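ok trying again, last paste got cut off:
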Amino acid sequence: MKKIFIAHPHPIVTVGLENMINEEKDLSVSGKSNNYYQALDMIYKSSPDMAVVDIFKNGEYRCIVTDIQKKNPSLPILVVSSIGESLYAQRCLRKGASGFITLEKPESEILKAVRTVLQGEVFLSEEELQKVMSYSRKNLNPLEDPVNSLSEREFQVYNLSGQGLSTKEIAYNMGISHKTVDTYYSHIKRKLNFNNIIELRKSAFSSLGQKAV
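nice, full thing came through this time. structure:
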């Protein structure tokens, strides 16, 4: 029986994943938490065979994969998120995750992802795998996507922009000044080759699978 820990900020999602996993004869949810720091502590103490996680904390970007890896470097991690993988899948793998899947996928596909990661393999959707193969044919590293050149704070600003937050709201959310947010905007525009903030926001909306307004 493989023990799986669920760390997800949304209780309804957590219960759904728990029920789905516990229905499998060879899988069992050994623990769960909707609290970021509690989850880290419980994973460290319980030593599960695998962790199924989301990557957000209180609406802001924070990669729990990074923190899990610090104390459990060999633990297989599958990211299950409500956001599109076009922006986050490769970044999560870069941080140490073994797979990424969106919640919109059918139950059978999510279970397939769980079993794939448990077997020590990497799981991505067919669409994302095609992207990786495309990079390979061009002799490029898929992890060299320009978005991956953003620092953690720059990426957080990019992510929050995609969620529709204003500069003022981003500054408040991150605990920084408006001027600092503007500085991050400048860095993002330069790294991703945007001409203005409108292009930046449209790209962030699109990457999150949302409709720009």
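cool. Residues 178-192 form the longest helix (15 residues). The beta strands are 2-7, 27-33, 50-53, 56-57, 60-61, 77-81, 99-102.
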